[in-house]
Amino acid sequence: MANKIRVTIWNEYVHEVYEDAVREIYPLGIHGCIKEFLEKLDVNGELEIRLAALADPDQGLPDEVLNNTDVLMWWGHCAHHEVDDGLVQRIKARVYDGGMGFIPMHSAHMSKPFREILGTSGKLLWGEDQHEFIWNVRPGHPITAGIPEHIELDKEEMYGEPFMIPQPDELLFISWFEQGYVFRSGCTYHRGRGKIFYFQPGHEYCRSFYNEYVQRVLYNAVKWAAPNDFGCPMHNCDMRGSLV
Amino acid sequence: MANKIRVTIWNEYVHEVYEDAVREIYPLGIHGCIKEFLEKLDVNGELEIRLAALADPDQGLPDEVLNNTDVLMWWGHCAHHEVDDGLVQRIKARVYDGGMGFIPMHSAHMSKPFREILGTSGKLLWGEDQHEFIWNVRPGHPITAGIPEHIELDKEEMYGEPFMIPQPDELLFISWFEQGYVFRSGCTYHRGRGKIFYFQPGHEYCRSFYNEYVQRVLYNAVKWAAPNDFGCPMHNCDMRGSLV
Amino acid sequence: MANKIRVTIWNEYVHEVYEDAVREIYPLGIHGCIKEFLEKLDVNGELEIRLAALADPDQGLPDEVLNNTDVLMWWGHCAHHEVDDGLVQRIKARVYDGGMGFIPMHSAHMSKPFREILGTSGKLLWGEDQHEFIWNVRPGHPITAGIPEHIELDKEEMYGEPFMIPQPDELLFISWFEQGYVFRSGCTYHRGRGKIFYFQPGHEYCRSFYNEYVQRVLYNAVKWAAPNDFGCPMHNCDMRGSLV
Amino acid sequence: MANKIRVTIWNEYVHEVYEDAVREIYPLGIHGCIKEFLEKLDVNGELEIRLAALADPDQGLPDEVLNNTDVLMWWGHCAHHEVDDGLVQRIKARVYDGGMGFIPMHSAHMSKPFREILGTSGKLLWGEDQHEFIWNVRPGHPITAGIPEHIELDKEEMYGEPFMIPQPDELLFISWFEQGYVFRSGCTYHRGRGKIFYFQPGHEYCRSFYNEYVQRVLYNAVKWAAPNDFGCPMHNCDMRGSLV
Description:
- Chain A contains seven helices and nine strands; from the N terminus they run E-H-H-H-E-H-E-H-E-H-E-E-E-E-E-H.
- By secondary structure, the first copy, chain A, is an alpha/beta fold.
- A five-stranded antiparallel β-sheet of chain A has the order 6-5-7-8-9, with helices on both faces. Chain A has a four-stranded parallel β-sheet with strand order 2-1-3-4, covered by helices on one side.
- In chain A, helix 3 (about 30-40) crosses helix 7 (about 210-225) and helix 5 (about 85-95) packs across helix 6 (about 110-120).
- Chain A is globular.
- The two termini of chain A are about 35 Å apart.
């Protein structure tokens, strides 16, 4: 890891371009909004943030970007299928072997990298936008630092259980939705050397990324997901001789 | 383990004795009600069920009972503090070393055996009786066999997060409560050689133990928690010599 | 699930065909050997066992076989790359949505289905055949029923940590190898509705499948991995309306 | 948490006083040795370290010390039974409700606070001092930062599986012992708001606390175990009204 945590915020950036209602909420794009609040919270200048989008050359993640990313944030929805399979494998390898952190948000539960990296179909129930309480079930975790008992969101898209994910390494948040549903809305995993945090808020028609606690959770998650200093190079199914 | 699964249902059996409203709902006591439905579901005669109560000699669990119990179910509330500390240690040892299954229900989250065996303060939020949906977040687990996506309870006492338990080995159910709360309502643990399943429904003023799915969950849990055939006697911090 | 547990033992079946030394140890093929001991242990006739191999039509797993398999056992090594990618996706879907059990053995840690289903690179260290002790770290689990403190194998191929797997849902066995290595040799996972058990012994030049405890572990695992009765059909990211 | 991480290193400090052989290895006491290397590694002055011993007033942990400790390290062996039960309950409450980190080392697996806080009998196998390799099974975790594939110790007391602990939240290290044994030697847990890390090296007749990687692991663990900023006060089974 370089001295700064090098964050790349990837957004498919389609809704904001084609839909007035979304662009009004996120005029800089969802990725632009996230960059803005991360920089605001980064009072000690520990982060170095880059944006990437589907329409960029190499879908925004050429080797020189991906290999110099410590934490990759991911927002996608209507264009999941357009993401290149080769890119997905490169992201996966960078998490597994390189220890890159990966933070899929909201509808990224059905994105190719999330499903490939985690081992999940990504299936869940969903419904219309409604009132949500995100309960903090793990006070004391670095990602919940500074987060109260619950976060209240006026409107978010309903995501409901059963969510067909592997049991999280750590379950940090559980959400209540007005119409009778619950959801494991904040989950950590590790895969290979990398750390993963899935967080549910962030529907393109809602204003969740402006909520100060949603912002704090994502800021905490970036710092938590940054790779550690490895004491050994990555092996590749090496043959080894006797140690004794 | 004997051929049959020897189940002991322990109930403090205080509310039913002193409160008309509770006795009307559970005329046989909560333990009596549980015995009745377990026997109904036990169509192959695999269970051998005994009742025990706080007012019984040795608080219902003399050595000859406890040492011949494969699965201990536990309901307690207003008399937690009256349970003998020595008994708690004997139950703990029977779980840890003997592999006895332990199924604490509802307000047993604050019982001495639950807190001692698990390592938890048992703290949670709570509120008045209200509508509850118990979501099945682990279809495919033996305890959720035959259980639909969710169980609906007209009224249950609200228990809410943060519930200060160790992260469950397996989280099976998450509950939604009408007034904005969520709860990890079905959790498995192992401790030593024993299996533990906590299940939240069962307030003394509610009729949850008459719900067919609540019944099925508890029946499944008894079968799941029964001890397995151990291939080795229990060691006790033995000193061992070289194997090679 | 049908009344019987329908087990399909898949083997790439290459070493036994082309190498005399392997065929001498496993004249029926590794799959044939496993079938034999499972049938020996199945004294109540609960299993219905089928064999499948890479060279069979549809690589041994046409839809009518796969869709009628409750538990799929998998042995592969030198021909991992020949397994059809479409088949891998069908197996994955059958585990995730159909709840099929999956039991990858030994060198299946690098097989396509293991890596796809679990989310792992499968990387590990390895070395020459040597003495192994498989320690039982979870007495009390159904898969370790009847298994002593440790299983001793005269010679097995060394597999060593770091094994780049997701942390197991349940870690059941840890192995000691003569030349200074350790390995998480028995691991359970769930993915979607399905249960997975990885078990390390089974090198083609060793006789581990003749060890009575290795046999008992695999027999226990088949019974553990069989799917449960689901109380609800599989959803597919359904939209849902208000419950309240 | 105060600006600095306030560490208290508790040692029963008996062997070093009464046995020449131990005092020769640890002339400052085991706690003194740990303080020395933590201070050496703490190049940015983030730690504030205090020593405490069984023979001190209030067994070294009066309220004004305990309530101002962020991370408590614990070494005990021959005097476990002398630790006051009231103190154990105060430590437990400080972990559960106050989020104090707790780092039990070596023979603290049988100490009262370890068993009470975790929910374990602490039982294991043990044997004479022998060669040990501590394998790093979780490269990428903050506690394994800078730690190579394995740590080699010339001689350590053998601790062996089955170790009757709850399955760790995260298993970081597995040890190989010369005479055929393995051990889960580095385990994280959370209990209530607090973080716990058990680490196995540290026999009083061995020199493990002088090993640079053992030192680094413990330094990393102190930083990992320090409590986070809680966004809400600790509740105590509070009753709550409707949020909607």
